[in-house]
Every structure is written in structure tokens, then in C-alpha cells.
Amino acid sequence: MHARADAPADQATDQGSSWPEDIFAILQRFDVRQVPYVPDAGHSELIQRVLKSSTMRGIPLTTEEEGVALLAGAWAGGQRGVLLMQSSGVGNCINMLSLTQIFRLPFLTLVTMRGEWGEFNPWQVPMGSSTQGVFELSGIKVLRASHPQEVREVMEAAASQAYNACTPTAVLLSQRLIGTKVFVK
Amino acid sequence: MSKTNLLDRRSVVSSLLKHRKDAIVVGGLGASTYDIAAAGDHARNFYLWGAMGGAVMIGLGLALAQPKLPVVVITGDGEMLMGMGSLATVGLQKPANLSIVVLDNESYGETGGQMSHTASAADLVGVARACGIADSRSLDTLAEIEAFAPALQDVAAGPRFASVKIDAANLERVLSNRDGMFVLTRLRGALGFNPI
């Protein structure tokens, strides 16, 4: 069984939209064009929106570090992007994250968290536990959203500092927000 | 260990870039960046001094952002092996303006000449083709290089991939700029983008 637990009753935000829609709207407003991703169930709604968009290009990766390099190239060519991944992918990026410092990139990544908040799979816990530390040691600012109502303002702040101030930023989307993955019913 | 009749890397790169026009050129970590610098510094050169395995993806990001400009990635076999998955990503996106050239000396020249996987096992042209880059070839002579060079200007029929078996001789380094902000800002400026 790989279904997720039912979305919590407070899934809808204050504005009545879902939090993935809030994220999409903010990315659109900041003129994000390239959206590299390694799929995660927690990102599935956002990925669907991106793949249907006429202004954004969803780019499936074989490993997350490809996305860091892609966004460096995108910015060199005048476009903004955002990297979508889950916490286990952050470790795959470490050396490539040096690009965010070398080029002072307007780097934004949205990370769905595993290995916390009722996790079933112990293999997710080590990387999930070190995700924030890895980012901070790599010079990336970290913001977190744990409730649907706060996603909009956290995203707004993250996109602003990443794109306006070229301050590499990661947003951690808590497992509490995305819902714990259910393996056994 | 040098084999006979292999091409000189500097001659290959200077031949490829002789009539580069508006092309953006990404150089992979190591000797490829020195080769591009040796062919002549240029505002549209994007030199990498790290991020091993990232050259093709940087080229892809550039190619998608600037679809009317030719983007050429020139890198080595070791750097390409580390980012081999990016060939699958390119094969899926199929950017028509992206060309990838691997200078294959079958060794890690920058670290003492240790043998690489292409010396006896890995076939990068086969990998690229199997990843969906239909125009994948090996170039064996300087005449073939010269005949191939105009294709780097094309922005309609890519992506393309070429592997060139080169002599493993370690040439004197020609050091490019290594300040990332300088190289980035200079390229962005050449493309018409102001600093923030």
C-alpha cells in the first residue's frame, strides 16, 4: 500500500485554495520558468500544475544534483527556476550546491520531508534528520512550513529572498503538512 | 600511456570553436576548461572549476533559456561519466540547440592519469544514443572535426553528442578566469541581462 493518509481536514488554506495551488501561484508571479524535479508524492499536485503550465517547463531528473546544475545554467541564460525534491534527495546534491555559493544564485528548492512526524520507514530517518543541517552547512537558508495556512507566507518570503536578494533558500514542507505515507492499513 | 594517431585536444577545440559566432560554450571541470581558454577567452565562455558531473546540465539550463542560441558543452570523459544520467535528461528534453562534445583521453588526466571506464568498457556514444540523443557519433580525425564544426551553429536539429578520442598527453595548463561571479555576470551581460 502506497496511498497517503487522507488529507487533513484543514488542507484548505485561508483563501480556500489548496497549498500546492498557493505555491504554483507564487512561482508564476515570480516568473519561474524551469522546474526540475525528482518526483515525490508530496509534490504530485504541484508537478501536475507545472506540466500543464504554458510558461513553466517541468524537467524530470535522474538525480537531484542535476537540478542544481540546471538552475545555474538557467540563470546564466536569464531564467529563474525552482528545484522540487524530497528530503532523501538533498544528500545527493551536496557538492553541486557549491554552485549556489560560487554564482550567488537565485536558488530556490522546495523539499517534501520524510523521516519525521510518524514515519513508518526507518530508512528515511537518517537523511530526513540531517536535511536542514546539510542545507545550512552548504550556505542555504532554510524555511519550513508545517500547516496549510502558512504555506503561502513562507513561500512568499522564500521566493522574495531567493529571487530578489539572490539568497539561496530551501523550503521544507513538513511531513505533517503533506501527510504521513501509509504502508499498511 | 599514449596511443598512436590520437588527436591533440587543443587542435580539436580550436577547430571546433574557430567560427563560434554567437555560441555559448560551457567547459567541464579540468583540462576541457583549459582547452577552451587556450582557444581564446570570450564573454560567452562559461568555465567550470568544480561541480564535477554538472557540465551537461548547466548546458541544458542555458539551452532551454536561450533556444535561439547554440549552446556547446565541451567536457572530458571522467566529468561525463560522473553526470551520465544527465544524458537521459537531455534525451527526454531534446533541446534542439544543444551540442555535447566529450574529449575522451580514457583517463583522469588532472589527477595523475588513472584509467577511466571508457578505456575498455564504457561506450559514451552508445550511452548517449541509447538515452535518446539520436545524433550521437564518434569523431576520429581532424577532417571529421572540421566537417562537424558547422553543426555546432545549428539550433534546429539537436541535441547532438560527439566523442573524440584524444591523446592523453598532459599539456601545460592555460588558466581561465576562475571567479564564478565574474564569468556568470560577463555571460549574462553578453546576453543582455543586467546585474540585480
Radius of gyration of chain B: 15 Å
CATH architecture of chain A: 3-Layer(aba) Sandwich
- Beta-strand residue percentage of chain B: 15-25%
Model regions low in confidence, pLDDT < 50 over at least 5 residues of chain B: none
Structural classification of chain B = alpha/beta
Summarize the structure.
The complex is a heterodimer of chains A (185) and B (196). With 185 residues, chain A is α/β, with parallel strands linked by helices.
Element layout with pairings:
The complex is a heterodimer of chains A (185) and B (196).
Chain A: H1 19-29, E1 32-37, H2 44-52, E2 57-60, H3 64-76, E3 80-81, E4 83-86, H4 87-90, H5 98-102, E5 108-112, H6 125-137, E6 141-145, H7 148-165, E7 169-173, H8 175-178
Helix pairs in contact in A: 1-2, 1-7
Chain B: H1 9-16, E1 24-27, H2 31-38, E2 45-47, H3 55-65, E3 71-76, H4 77-82, H5 85-93, E4 98-104, E5 107-108, E6 114-115, H6 124-130, E7 135-139, H7 142-148, E8 160-165, H8 180-190
Parallel strand pairs in B: 1-2, 1-3, 3-4, 4-8, 7-8
Antiparallel strand pairs in B: 5-6
Provide keyphrases for this structure.
heterodimer; A: alpha/beta; Rossmann fold; three-stranded parallel β-sheet; B: 196 residues; alpha/beta; six-stranded parallel β-sheet; 34% helix; globular
